[in-house]
Specification:
Blueprint lengths: L1 E2 L2 E2 L4 E3 L8 H9 L5 E2 L3 E2 H6 L2 H6 L9 E6 L3 H12 L9 E6 L4 H4 L11 H14 L4 E6 L9 H11 L4 E4 L13 H10 L4 E4 L5 H11 L3 E4 L9 H11 L8 H19 L1 H16 L5 H10 L3 H14 L5 H5 L5
């Protein structure tokens, strides 16, 4: 797959995930086979104002490439200025893609006429993308939902408007804003959108397994598949998808030892990235995902949520690993679980 001049080694990408897809999470996904990643959504207003926290969302490491920074906002001038600022960054700091969030259903976003609200105002959406593309040094793409609700402009109309405005690719979460994450994703509408435009179309929604990902490619004709919640606590999902797509091989699910070792490693990466105090808070959700489905996981998740420090969480996860008899043989071979 190729978007503008950006080439991807496979069709399988990590979705932008608010509150989740920070640098450690993205690096683990890339390491396990994701062909590209996106930041969580970044405020164009905050970027233009130079807010420190907003700028931090835009930082990434070389091993994360290819990477897209996803912007949200509704003012064409501000969105264009944000795209221009990203384009003026150094070669090392500049992302490979800039993505426009046209799918977030959260009230505080749509009340600002951003995210999924843009689906109801195609002239404004087209103006935003056109003005961003005019100043951006990298391809501008968009991630959308099918529509605001039934009766709103249909997805084919939306993707045609985006292509006409200069978007270089469109990712489609195959539900309307009104559906949220409920019900079945309408994959057939991804196929209809793909047939309507010449730019790459990336499918998203209800892709939980390797078989799902390949089936989406085959049944919709889409160019790529974006995985989101399937990667929570399971970055190996990309390795499984790649193996099935490339060789028809069904790799085993990670063991309890694999999951708990990865959780401990993820925690260390978080400490290196944002410091121990923030890591202790931010890692709670990830730790809960790593233990999901394991014996007594409900109790362990409750205990994780009560931890107040990195040392507490590390001790808890190591103790749980040992109670399961899932010691770290690979770590021991390397000289210890440090």
């Amino acid at each position: 797959m190729q978007i503008g001049g950006v080439r991807f080694e496979s069709p399988f990408l990590l979705a932008p995930l608010a509150g989740v897809s920070d640098s450690p999470f993205r690096r683990l996904a890339r390491e396990q086979g994701a062909a590209g990643v996106y930041t969580e959504m970044v405020s164009a207003d905050g970027l233009v104002r130079g807010q420190r926290a907003t700028l931090a969302y835009c930082r990434f490491r070389p091993e994360e490439r290819p990477i897209g920074i996803q912007l949200f906002g509704s003012d064409p001038g501000v969105m264009a200025e944000a795209a221009g600022r990203l384009g003026r960054l150094s070669d090392e700091e500049r992302p490979d893609l800039i993505d426009v969030n046209v799918g977030c259903p959260v009230r505080k976003i749509v009340n600002r006429h951003a995210g999924a609200a843009l689906l109801g105002n195609l002239p404004l959406l087209a103006d935003i993308v056109r003005r961003m593309g005019a100043v951006s040094r990298v391809p501008v793409t968009a991630k959308i939902r099918l529509a605001w609700e039934d009766g709103s402009p249909a997805v084919v109309e939306v993707v045609r408007a985006l292509e006409g405005a200069g978007a270089r690719a469109v990712a489609i979460h195959a539900r309307t804003r009104a559906e949220g994450f409920a019900g079945r994703a309408h994959w057939e509408l991804i196929g209809a959108a793909r047939r309507a435009v010449s730019i790459p179309v990336i499918g998203n929604g209800d892709v939980r397994t390797a078989e799902d990902a390949v089936r989406m490619l085959e049944t919709t004709g889409c160019d790529g598949v974006m995985l989101g919640r399937a990667a929570f606590g399971d970055p190996w999902v990309f390795r499984r998808v790649r193996a099935f797509w490339e060789r028809g091989e069904r790799l085993p699910l990670p063991t309890a030892a694999d999951r708990l070792e990865m959780g401990l490693r993820h925690l260390r990466m978080m400490v290196d990235e944002i410091g121990a105090e923030r890591a202790a808070r931010e890692m709670r959700k990830h730790a809960a995902w790593y233990v999901k489905g394991l014996p007594r996981s409900a109790l362990v998740r409750e205990q994780v949520n009560r931890t107040r420090s990195v040392d507490e969480m590390t001790s808890l996860l190591r103790r749980y690993r040992d109670e399961l008899g899932a010691g770290p043989p690979r770590a021991r071979e390397r000289g210890g679980d440090r």
